[in-house]
Fold each of these.
Amino acid sequence: MTPWWVRNVWDIAVFWTIALLVVFVSLAIMRFTPVLNPEVESLRKREQQCTRCPLRAGCTQVVPGIGPSPAPIMIVGEAPGADEDKQGLPFVGASGQLLSRMLEAAKIDREAIWVSNVVRCRPPDNRRPEPAEIAACKMWLWEEMKLVDPLVVVALGNTPAKLLLRGKSTFKISRVVGQPQPADFLKEQGIVVPMYHPSYLLRQSEKDVQEATRIFVKVRNYVDARVHTVGVC
Ligand code: SF4
């Protein structure tokens, strides 16, 4: 017969093994679950329920912006594509992979920046969003921007650059690509940096991709200088 004290030692060992396992699993879950502040959580919920324009009827789900808040850099693309529509996350398809590659080469941590789009629902056949759709959806972008409070907004492609720089109908991103533009809706000395969209760069040469990466390096240097000189973020 097993002595009583052996049974007790065994019970205690089992208890502490299970307790430690619970602690380790909880810590692992916390480590890999993005912590959203309550304001971001509430904004995401409101965005996900939006039906302000006809794009919602033709897409699978609304794709809100994502990232930490505040964040020094905000990236704004045009609209979700097929992969983003399926997964509910911005920039996860081929364009998103190229974006990640350029950010990594520029030593910008994608997890430390906010990524979003001008419209949150996928337009049919990936067409450009109509002015009325942009007008309906831009309130969400402004709300995200208020929470993220970025120093630099990188506008990926003609549509976001035109919206953020209040461009006229003749606006062409090729005239301003890579040139920092002052933006009175951002904090002091905040800038908008127009860049070609990764979906366009996917069809260009590696040299063009490297040139775009150099723009991201300049963005990182600008943010680093601001953070160190005025202690922003
Ligand atoms: S595109 Fe924007 S405004 Fe239109 S339904 Fe989707 S979230 Fe709402």
Amino acid sequence: MKRSTGIFAALILVLAAVSMAFAAEGNARKGKYTYRAKCRTCHGATASDLSPSSKTQAEWKKIFAKPEAIKCFKDWKGVSPEDKGDIFAYLHDYAKDSPSPAKCN
Ligand code: HEC
């Protein structure tokens, strides 16, 4: 009895850790809309036509590890840390080498 309680508790801990890991990754569906609203205003108009499929997952990872180095970072108006995570999730999950590359249009 004691033992199965321990296993059950361990299982709960693992599940909690997994769901937290997903939360930290950002929400790609939300990111798609945030990207359209806050980035596509320039990208695809006055700036490069950037889509998730413009880069590989590794390239997006590298870029978002240091977003303050991106040329337009100062123009990211009203982009919260959460938005940043969502945008990263969207760009990364639909990158050139992802299972479903996406073009933003
Ligand atoms: C006010 C206009 C503007 C906005 C808004 C903007 N950008 Fe940019 N961005 C630029 C310009 C200009 C450049 C540099 C030249 C280019 O790539 O066209 C650039 C460059 C970049 C680059 C580097 C391009 C490359 O090929 O390496 C990335 C990545 C990027 N922006 C992402 C974003 C993201 C993500 C957002 C939204 C959070 C955003 N930008 C919002 C104008 C903008």
